[in-house]
Write a structure and sequence with these properties.
It contains 10 helices and 8 strands. With 238 residues, the protein is α/β, with parallel strands linked by helices. The protein has a single domain, classed as Glycoside hydrolase/deacetylase (TIM Barrel), CATH 3.20.20. Helix 3 runs parallel beside helix 9.
Length: 238
């Protein structure tokens, strides 16, 4: 019983580490071929946001960068014009649950499936196409998630490094976290919704992103959307 109890807690504990592969396949970096080619993947969570996402899109366009937006289904339904703009500009729209519940990882298979499938439908109806990738709220997994994702034809994506822009009010610090050790193949996490505000009340991501894009340029790196960088994700899971 003690061995089983310890094993059970170890499995549940693994889900608290977003980059863990203990509970199933998890994409944390791009394939080596992309890494050698200087490709990284900028990703944005929690949107779309009518006050932030359009500005993020403009910044990306100025740098010729392509990114991936993990959208919340109910927000996609509320702002289909922004979802359409994301796709029209060559970026990816992927699944970040329907309602972004804080207790997502505590749900059983049925609850997980409902949130994921509802988001698939909502994003599709909002003009985002059919998502191929999924990221859970805060990246937290549970033992049933990999089975549910396999049934939905989705691939779990976490990140290589994150900026903590939902809690850090200084864009320079956010960018420094993402730029420290930045190299080809990295998957970077920022937020186009839920971004912290700086001392002037401006979303931190709008200050951090230009800095990150400049650092990428200095290092000879470019950002591609996941759907372009992972043409055959099933064979590229790390």
């Amino acid at each position: 019983m003690l061995t089983a109890l310890v094993g059970n807690h170890a499995v549940l504990g693994a889900g608290l580490f977003p980059r863990s592969t203990w509970l199933g396949p998890n994409i944390t970096r791009l394939p080596e071929a992309q890494a050698q080619g200087g490709v990284v993947a900028l990703t944005f969570d929690d949107g779309p946001d009518p006050h932030v996402t359009p500005a993020v899109l403009d910044l990306l366009e100025q740098s010729g960068a392509r990114a991936t937006f993990f959208c919340v289904g109910c927000r996609a339904e509320a702002y289909p014009d922004i979802v359409a703009a994301i796709r029209d500009r060559g970026h990816g729209v992927e699944n970040h649950t329907y309602s972004h519940p804080n207790g997502f990882a505590f749900r059983g298979p049925r609850g997980l499936r409902h949130e994921i499938q509802q988001a698939q439908v909502a994003i599709g109806r909002s003009g985002g196409g059919r998502p191929n990738f999924f990221r859970p709220p805060a990246g937290v997994q549970n033992p049933w998630l990999s089975v549910v994702l396999a049934g939905a034809g989705l691939f779990l994506v976490s990140w290589t490094r994150r900026g903590f822009d939902t809690v850090t009010r200084d864009g320079a610090r956010v960018a420094a976290r993402l730029g420290r050790g930045l190299r080809g193949g990295d998957i970077l996490l920022l937020h186009d919704a839920s971004s912290a505000r700086d001392a002037r009340g401006r979303p931190v991501v709008l200050d951090a992103l230009p800095r990150v894009l400049d650092e990428m340029s200095r290092r000879g790196l470019r950002s591609e959307a996941l759907h372009a960088a992972l043409e055959k994700p099933g064979s590229e899971v790390l």
